[in-house]
Protein backbone atom coordinates (compact mmCIF):
# COMPACT_ATOMS: atom_id res chain seq x y z
CA UNK A 1 0.00 0.00 0.00
CA UNK A 2 1.48 3.30 -1.06
CA UNK A 3 -0.39 5.76 1.18
CA UNK A 4 -1.77 4.00 4.24
CA UNK A 5 -3.83 6.01 6.70
CA UNK A 6 -2.37 6.77 10.11
CA UNK A 7 -3.39 5.12 13.35
CA UNK A 8 -4.86 7.82 15.60
CA UNK A 9 -5.53 5.49 18.55
CA UNK A 10 -4.94 1.86 19.45
CA UNK A 11 -5.96 -0.28 22.39
CA UNK A 12 -5.86 -3.94 23.30
CA UNK A 13 -9.42 -5.30 23.37
CA UNK A 14 -8.45 -8.80 24.49
CA UNK A 15 -5.35 -10.97 24.14
CA UNK A 16 -4.50 -11.06 20.43
CA UNK A 17 -7.03 -8.39 19.40
CA UNK A 18 -6.38 -4.67 18.96
CA UNK A 19 -8.87 -1.92 18.20
CA UNK A 20 -7.41 0.62 15.77
CA UNK A 21 -8.82 4.06 15.06
CA UNK A 22 -7.69 5.28 11.65
CA UNK A 23 -7.23 8.76 10.21
CA UNK A 24 -9.98 7.78 7.72
CA UNK A 25 -12.51 7.84 10.57
CA UNK A 26 -12.80 4.06 10.63
CA UNK A 27 -12.51 2.04 13.82
CA UNK A 28 -11.55 -1.56 13.05
CA UNK A 29 -10.37 -4.50 15.10
CA UNK A 30 -7.43 -6.61 14.02
CA UNK A 31 -6.97 -10.14 15.33
CA UNK A 32 -3.29 -11.03 15.61
CA UNK A 33 -3.77 -14.18 17.70
CA UNK A 34 -2.44 -16.50 14.98
CA UNK A 35 0.64 -14.35 14.25
CA UNK A 36 2.90 -16.03 16.87
CA UNK A 37 2.07 -19.43 15.36
CA UNK A 38 2.71 -18.28 11.78
CA UNK A 39 5.90 -16.31 12.43
CA UNK A 40 8.43 -17.20 15.11
CA UNK A 41 9.61 -13.57 15.28
CA UNK A 42 6.27 -12.72 16.90
CA UNK A 43 6.28 -15.62 19.41
CA UNK A 44 6.26 -13.20 22.37
CA UNK A 45 2.80 -11.96 21.33
CA UNK A 46 1.34 -15.28 22.51
CA UNK A 47 1.93 -14.07 26.09
CA UNK A 48 -1.14 -11.95 27.07
CA UNK A 49 0.92 -9.86 29.52
CA UNK A 50 3.46 -8.99 26.82
CA UNK A 51 0.71 -8.41 24.23
CA UNK A 52 -0.95 -5.89 26.58
CA UNK A 53 2.22 -3.74 26.42
CA UNK A 54 1.31 -2.69 22.86
CA UNK A 55 1.63 1.01 22.07
CA UNK A 56 0.96 3.17 19.00
CA UNK A 57 4.08 4.88 17.67
CA UNK A 58 4.29 8.64 18.02
CA UNK A 59 3.48 9.31 14.35
CA UNK A 60 0.67 6.76 13.89
CA UNK A 61 2.68 4.72 11.38
CA UNK A 62 2.39 1.50 13.37
CA UNK A 63 2.16 -0.22 16.72
CA UNK A 64 4.89 -1.86 18.72
CA UNK A 65 5.96 -3.76 21.79
CA UNK A 66 9.08 -3.60 23.98
CA UNK A 67 12.27 -4.82 22.35
CA UNK A 68 11.57 -3.40 18.89
CA UNK A 69 8.76 -5.74 17.85
CA UNK A 70 6.40 -3.75 15.62
CA UNK A 71 3.84 -3.82 12.82
CA UNK A 72 3.32 -1.09 10.23
CA UNK A 73 0.09 0.77 9.57
CA UNK A 74 -0.02 -0.40 5.95
CA UNK A 75 -0.24 -4.10 6.84
CA UNK A 76 -2.53 -3.47 9.82
CA UNK A 77 -4.96 -1.46 7.68
CA UNK A 78 -5.15 -4.14 4.99
CA UNK A 79 -5.52 -6.89 7.58
CA UNK A 80 -8.16 -5.09 9.64
CA UNK A 81 -10.26 -4.31 6.55
CA UNK A 82 -9.81 -7.85 5.25
CA UNK A 83 -10.90 -9.34 8.59
CA UNK A 84 -13.94 -7.02 8.62
CA UNK A 85 -14.95 -8.24 5.15
CA UNK A 86 -14.23 -4.86 3.56
CA UNK A 87 -12.48 -4.26 0.22
CA UNK A 88 -8.75 -3.56 0.40
CA UNK A 89 -6.38 -1.52 -1.74
CA UNK A 90 -4.45 -4.63 -2.77
CA UNK A 91 -7.67 -6.33 -3.92
CA UNK A 92 -8.65 -3.21 -5.85
CA UNK A 93 -5.25 -2.95 -7.51
CA UNK A 94 -5.37 -6.68 -8.35
CA UNK A 95 -8.79 -6.18 -9.97
CA UNK A 96 -7.38 -3.38 -12.13
CA UNK A 97 -4.32 -5.41 -13.14
CA UNK A 98 -6.30 -8.60 -13.77
CA UNK A 99 -8.58 -6.72 -16.14
CA UNK A 100 -5.91 -4.51 -17.72
CA UNK A 101 -7.57 -1.31 -16.53
CA UNK A 102 -5.84 2.04 -16.34
CA UNK A 103 -6.97 4.61 -13.78
CA UNK A 104 -9.04 6.36 -16.44
CA UNK A 105 -10.72 3.21 -17.76
CA UNK A 106 -11.43 1.93 -14.22
CA UNK A 107 -12.97 5.31 -13.36
CA UNK A 108 -15.14 5.28 -16.46
CA UNK A 109 -16.16 1.66 -15.85
CA UNK A 110 -17.29 2.40 -12.29
CA UNK A 111 -18.73 5.87 -12.99
CA UNK A 112 -16.21 7.56 -10.71
CA UNK A 113 -13.45 10.11 -11.02
CA UNK A 114 -9.91 9.09 -11.89
CA UNK A 115 -8.74 10.79 -8.72
CA UNK A 116 -10.98 8.64 -6.49
CA UNK A 117 -9.80 5.48 -8.26
CA UNK A 118 -6.21 6.56 -7.54
CA UNK A 119 -7.10 6.99 -3.86
CA UNK A 120 -8.63 3.50 -3.71
CA UNK A 121 -5.66 1.93 -5.51
CA UNK A 122 -3.10 3.49 -3.18
CA UNK A 123 -5.10 2.96 -0.01
CA UNK A 124 -5.30 6.65 0.90
CA UNK A 125 -9.12 6.45 1.07
CA UNK A 126 -11.22 3.53 2.31
CA UNK A 127 -13.03 1.59 -0.40
CA UNK A 128 -16.79 1.43 0.22
CA UNK A 129 -18.43 -1.99 0.12
CA UNK A 130 -20.56 -0.92 -2.87
CA UNK A 131 -17.41 -0.16 -4.88
CA UNK A 132 -16.01 -3.61 -4.06
CA UNK A 133 -19.29 -5.16 -5.20
CA UNK A 134 -19.30 -3.04 -8.36
CA UNK A 135 -15.82 -4.34 -9.21
CA UNK A 136 -17.00 -7.94 -8.81
CA UNK A 137 -20.07 -7.24 -10.93
CA UNK A 138 -18.03 -5.51 -13.63
CA UNK A 139 -15.63 -8.44 -13.73
CA UNK A 140 -18.46 -10.99 -13.96
CA UNK A 141 -20.05 -9.04 -16.83
CA UNK A 142 -16.76 -8.74 -18.74
CA UNK A 143 -15.41 -12.26 -18.14
CA UNK A 144 -14.46 -14.14 -21.27
CA UNK A 145 -16.48 -17.29 -22.05
CA UNK A 146 -14.96 -20.19 -20.18
CA UNK A 147 -13.09 -17.85 -17.82
CA UNK A 148 -14.17 -17.95 -14.17
CA UNK A 149 -15.84 -14.72 -13.02
Percent range for β-strand residues: 15-25%
How far apart, in Å, are the first and last alpha carbons?
A: 25 Å
**Poorly predicted tracts of residues:** none
Question: How does the major sheet shape up?
Answer: 3 strands, antiparallel
Strand order of the largest sheet: 1-2-3
Order of helices and strands: EEEHHEEEHHHHH
Question: Structural class, judged by helices and strands?
Answer: alpha+beta
Give the tally of β-strands: 6
**Net shape:** elongated
Helix percent band: 40-55%
Total number of helices: 7
Q: Would you tell me the overall average pLDDT?
A: 93
Key words describing this protein structure:
three-stranded antiparallel beta sheet, 6 strands, single chain, 7 helices, 149 residues, alpha+beta, elongated
Short description:
With about 150 residues, the protein is of the alpha+beta class.
Account of the protein in words:
It is a single chain. The chain has 149 residues and is an alpha+beta fold. The protein is built from seven helices and six strands. Strands 1-2-3 form a three-stranded antiparallel sheet, covered by helices on one side. Helix 5 (103-110) packs across helix 6 (114-122). The longest helix is centred in the C-terminal third of the chain and has 14 residues, at 129-142. The chain is elongated. The two termini are 25 Å apart. The relative contact order is 0.15. The mean pLDDT is 93.
Amino acid sequence: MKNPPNITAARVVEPGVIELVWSTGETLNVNLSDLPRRNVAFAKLADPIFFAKMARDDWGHGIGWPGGLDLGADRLYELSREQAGLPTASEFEAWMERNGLSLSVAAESLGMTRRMIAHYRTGSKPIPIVVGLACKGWEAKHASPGQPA
